Amino acid sequence: MQSMxxxxxxxxxxxxxxxxxxxxxERDIQALAGxxxxxxxxxxxxxxxxxxxxxxxxxGAAEEITGYPASAVVGSRCADNILRHxxxxxxxxxxxxxxxxxxxxxxxxxDLVAYLHHRDGRRLPVHVRSIAxxxxxxxxxxxxxxxxxxxxxxxxxxxxxxxxxxxSDPLTKIGNRRFFELNAEARLASYHAQQIPFGLLMFDIDHxxxxxxxxxxxxxxxxxxxxxxxxxxxxxxLDTAARFGGEEFVVLVPNCNEEYLYVVGERIRILIETSWLxxxxxxxxxxxxxxxxxxxxxxxxxxxxxxxxxxxxxxxxESGRNRVIVGA
Length: 328
Known about the structure:
Blueprint (H helix, E strand, L loop, with lengths): L5 E2 L4 E2 L12 H6 L4 H4 L5 E5 L5 E4 L1 H7 L32 H8 L3 E8 L5 E12 L5 E9 L5 H14 L9 H18 L3 E8 L2 H8 L1 H17 L6 E6 L2 E7 L3 H16 L3 E2 L5 E2 L3 E7 L6 H17 L5 E4 L1
Parallel strand pairs: 13-14
Antiparallel strand pairs: 1-2, 3-4, 3-7, 5-6, 6-7, 8-10, 8-13, 9-10, 11-12
Helix pairs in contact: 7-8
């Protein structure tokens, strides 16, 4: 299944007619060049880089969206273990197709969708706009405006409200096992009634016991929340993520085929592999996940679909971990 965004210099350009996440247009930003105090009142994150991509300005909304204060960011380069934008196919845009560098080179404005690294370790989907400008001495700079993607239908919002009451996992804040079971039964009923296909992905954090033993259970809980947040951020509004139990997570992907189910699973795997947590004392913690997936079949019950996805997950573990295997 083809992505909804077309490739353009290191990211995905927003399709014609798609509503921008930004309330401030290019002409507005050009008019505000040099008036950085005004950029502080925007709801969108804003930062400005010089010709060497060194960050010169970081507004309050950027702090709120990313978790990084200006004091920890200004003066460093945007690729210095801060946001490290990742495209849907897993490319690190800071080193492979940086939109800021492309805008510095040709002066063209770019809109794209990417996943930034939040300070708490999760990957966050954002709309990004990079715009060429100059300082008062005529030296080229680029301003980047970004905002978290939170487009969800009213139905999803209502489901989330219900989930918060009785169907959410208290630690990770995503759906719990009961929430998954209800959604899986509903997808199965739609499949039998209307032949709407769907797939199931199951994930397990690799060597999670070692994380708990080495860093403690508090760090283990933070890892669980990081993984849950990254999985949620990688999905479409109608996809369903839940904590299945322990360090296992499940994702229901409706209206897809086996090829696209693998694409979703691989995207999640890559986003988690390229994320990290900075712990007290200077330690940096990274984890990987293994995944297995299966497409619904005519004679399936929820239990048989889970069994086949779990078999693929076991194969991923036996094949060396940090991989996703999808089958029928």
